[in-house]
Amino acid sequence: MADTLVKGQRSAVTGQDTPMLELNAIDSGYAGTVVVRGISFRVPRGAAVALLGANGAGKTTTLRTAAGLLRPVKGQVLLDGEDVTRMSASRRAAKGMCLIPEGRGIFPSLTVRESLILYGRRGKAKDTVDRAVSAFPVLAERLSQVTGTLSGGEQQMLSLARAYVTEPRIVLVDEASIGLAPLIVDQIFEFLAQLLTESISILLVEQYVGRALELVNQVEVMEHGTIVLSGKPAEIDESELSRAYLGTDPSLTQDGRTIDGSAATAQC
Ligand code: ATP
């Protein structure tokens, strides 16, 4: 029965062609105010989709709706072919959906090791820590350190590693690179590329547009709560993309010096 599936299993009624995540005509928002309208797109199995757009375009609202933190007023969310629209965020997480929120969502008083074990499989503490360290080796030197004292880059790596130890099927990543040094951003994008090699799907909200375009298979551009442009990275018209960012110079979108800016706990 689809409802009793656990991570790593595939629904008997779905197959390779079933998208890992599908949003169908979603209207969603806050306290009766709809801020995203008619949002439809798919994240294929093992593929990455970037959700781009200016500040306030509705990207975080879309991710939170996909993850189950917001209930849409209209439309459907399908996870591996199963309608999860009315399912809680924690049940979606148990089925392999992991939201990595902007702001990292760490518990500052826990050590790195404790934070990882909290999210890893029960009774598998060593495996959990090994998996996290394989993703971000620097964490090996920080295991006993309280997370609130980590650098911003280390906190972001912990946030990503914590998602990884849940063995997700899809990760929803909200502005993971914001405010970080280029070398750390490189490591984050290497990690995301590694997820794809493991057939973990990605829905990415990212300020470094050029970097996002290199990683993903599909781009969805949002403006004022709706999707205004969709396509493969090579098909996306740079000037249209810039227009969606309200007059941004296209060269800036390419080298990643622009665009966004805007918090929560990890949901997985
Ligand atoms: P940013 O890149 O700045 O994070 P975004 O594209 O992720 O922007 P959202 O955070 O989804 O955009 O915001 C979309 C709209 O919803 C904005 O007008 C914002 O003011 C509004 N909004 C966001 N969070 C809330 C909230 N908790 N309550 C009410 N309105 C909100």
Could you characterize the architecture of this molecule?
The protein has a 6-stranded mixed β-sheet, sandwiched between helices. Helix 3 (112-119) packs across helix 4 (125-135). The chain is α/β, with parallel strands linked by helices and 268 residues long. The longest helix is centred in the C-terminal third of the chain and has 16 residues, at 182-197. Helix content is 31%, strand content 23%. The chain has one domain (20-255): Rossmann fold, CATH 3.40.50. It has 9 helices and 10 strands. It binds adenosine-5'-triphosphate. The site of adenosine-5'-triphosphate (ATP) has 13 residues, from helix 1.
Q: Helices and strands in order, then pairings?
A:
Layout: E1 21-30, E2 33-43, E3 48-53, H1 59-67, E4 74-79, E5 82-83, H2 89-94, E6 97-100, H3 112-119, H4 125-135, H5 152-164, E7 170-174, H6 182-197, E8 201-205, H7 209-215, E9 218-223, E10 226-231, H8 238-244, H9 250-255
Parallel strand pairs: 3-8, 3-9, 6-7, 7-8
Antiparallel strand pairs: 1-2, 1-4, 4-5, 9-10
Helix pairs in contact: 3-4, 3-5, 4-5, 5-6
Bound molecules: adenosine-5'-triphosphate (ATP).
The site of adenosine-5'-triphosphate has 13 residues, from helix 1.
